[in-house]
Amino acid sequence: MITELVANAVDHSRLPSIRVIVSRPSTHRVRLGVVDRSRTLPMLRAAPYGDQLRGRGLLIVDSLTEQWGTELYRWGKQVWAELWDGGRA
After folding, report:
1. Would you say residue 57 has pLDDT above 50?
2. For residues 65 and 52, what is the distance between their CA atoms, to the nearest angstrom?
3. Does pLDDT of 52 surpass 90?
């Protein structure tokens, strides 16, 4: 999942740097985020046709996570996704 978020930032922001953030917003959730300086919002596309290799990133993120979203900043954005750890220690 983090690979897809990073790949999207690299492909679409086309800027020299991004930042990866890992946080724990609650006891049983882990949030992975990618920050870049582009304010272009990501778009969840319909399923690609046939053997298309591109356009599946957010579909993968959407299917693997509890929730995902975007936070806009004055200078860019963070695309994040949360995983539930199921209460395991």
Report:
1. yes
2. 23
3. no
